[in-house]
Amino acid sequence: GSPRRLLLVSNSTLHGGGYLGHCQQHIQSFLGQKVKRVLFIPYALHDRDAYARTAREKFESLGYGLDSIHESCDPVEAVRKSEAIFIGGGNTFRLLKALYDNCLIHEIRKRVLEDGIPYMGSSAGTNVATVSINTTNDMPIVYPPSLQALGLVPFNINPHYLDPDVKSTHMGETREERIRQYHEEPNTPPVLGLREGAMLLVEGDKATLQGVTGARLFLRGKKPTEHEPGTDFSFLLIDSNPLN
Fold this sequence. Notes:
Layout: E1 5-9, H1 24-31, E2 37-41, H2 48-61, E3 65-68, H3 75-81, E4 85-87, H4 92-101, H5 105-114, E5 119-122, H6 124-127, E6 156-158, H7 175-183, E7 191-194, E8 198-203, E9 206-211, E10 215-218, E11 225-227, H8 235-238
Parallel strand pairs: 1-5, 2-3, 2-4, 4-5, 6-7
Antiparallel strand pairs: 1-8, 7-10, 8-9, 10-11
């Protein structure tokens, strides 16, 4: 089996709480006591210094040191030496372009999938952990060389998944309709819609839904299904597209 360990969080901040407050116990359980320092990748936001300060303050309060990759003169070497990686949220296109520009796609994949170091993502950081960023909610403000992402799991995620508001007069597409449009294209993988407050824990070949809210699973050619925290999603790791 794979040594990969992933904590893929839908959102960094949950209404009524502070930065990573809703998942801090999950973070401590996930990183454990072996990890002393976390490598933070702040590329999804423009002000990397301020972003790193926010993340450092949070992780230090949980007992972990934090190094931000943008402060390193050699980002590839920083990844090679890292004990754990955390990629935060922001704009997914900006994030993925920076990962390509800094030659980090292969290095992060190797560290996570071969060396088994813990990888945590929130929002955009969760998007780039998947097959591609095709199901992000963000605007393409910059142009990465490819929409293909880290591929740490063989499916896609839609963070911040929103259910239709029955009282709304907005006539634009719902999130579900947009994912369905994605699945109209051939050979598209499953999409897991993670609501605010939900996260996916991947340990080797086992994937479990955690958090306080559920998720909605979209498989190409099938009706979407609803899932509660505790759901075993390990089958998504085995067969990326049952209908291929």
